[in-house]
Amino acid sequence: MHRAGKQGLGAAYLAGFAWAAQNDFDAVVEMDADGSHAPEELPRLLDALAEADVVLGSRWVAGGTVVNWPMHRHLISRGGNLYVRLALAMPLKDATGGYRAYRLPALEKMELETIASQGYCFQVDLAWRAHRHGFRIAEIPITFAERERGASKMSSSIVREALWRVTVWGTRARLAAARRLFAGHRSGG
């Protein structure tokens, strides 16, 4: 699939997901095309779909590694994933990674038409939606290598978007839980 111009990471993935659904695929895979994700690891992600709805290739689980990243990138990624875990009460070690496999029926239940996230926040958004829907999520260790070509698209605006959205989602989830708890106490339940 070739798209005219750059319309953002999230829009590109959504277009690919729609194409896969229209062509009756059972699963879709996200993978960076800059050499960061090894195609040789793809069979393990697909095999894990036998027991999961969503499989995340994880840099931060036992056996996962990152090659040729400067220390500040390690800190940003690990810190961002820690913040996501705490803010969203989501047990995933690598909610920001982009090497993933999804069962199409799971994606179809995630209300993709309501996604406004762009950049790396798109990855967190999909993981959060999968978690909230109670889908089976597996994390498989991968080796992530610094890109062979091109430049990182990480920018301060992408980081700000992710921080803002994750904070809003986490706050809303906690407020909703507090309202349910309060309503249960008021009704005697």
List the helices and strands and how they pair.
Layout: H1 9-22, E1 27-30, H2 42-48, E2 54-58, E3 65-67, H3 71-88, E4 100-103, H4 104-108, H5 121-132, E5 137-141, E6 143-145, H6 156-186
Parallel strand pairs: 2-5, 3-6
Antiparallel strand pairs: 1-4, 2-4
> How many distinct beta strands?
6
The amount of beta strand, in percent, is 5-15%
As a whole number of angstroms, the C-alpha radius of gyration is 17 Å
Sheet with most strands: 4 strands, mixed
| Poorly predicted sequence stretches spanning 5 or more consecutive residues | none
Q: Quick check: average pLDDT? A: 91
Helix content: 40-55%
Distinct helical segment count: 6
> What topology, given as strand order, has the largest sheet?
1-4-2-5
Overall outline: globular
Please give the oligomerization state of what you see.
single chain
State the gist of this model.
With 189 residues, this protein is an alpha/beta fold. The protein contains 6 helices and 6 strands. Helices cover 46% and strands 13% of the residues.
Features:
single chain; 189 residues; alpha/beta; four-stranded mixed sheet; two-stranded parallel sheet; 6 helices
Give a description of the structure:
By secondary structure, this protein is an alpha/beta fold. The chain has helices spanning 9-22, 42-48, 71-88, 104-108, 121-132, 156-186, and strands spanning 27-30, 54-58, 65-67, 100-103, 137-141, 143-145. Helix 3 packs parallel to helix 6 and helix 5 runs parallel beside helix 6 (156-186). The N and C termini lie far apart (53 Å). 30% of the residues are buried. The model has no long low-confidence stretch (mean pLDDT 91).
